[in-house]
Amino acid sequence: MITNQENPVGNRQPRHRREAGGDRYIAIRNILNVIFMIGAVIGVLVYFYGSQDTGTIIILVSMVFKIVECVFRFMK
Length: 76
Known about the structure:
mainly alpha; 2 helices
């Protein structure tokens, strides 16, 4: 039997603990993610409805933005 002392409902720990300072690169990361998503969607549309070579280049360029965002994520 679980008593109130073993499992206090009111004193649960949060599932994710964030650092007190937060992520100082969050604004840059969000901008880079938006650029990546827009570029990926445009690249897929160009790939299927236009030139496959141009669509592939657009997708690869948008992936560069995602890689830069990952670098900022690891730097925190």
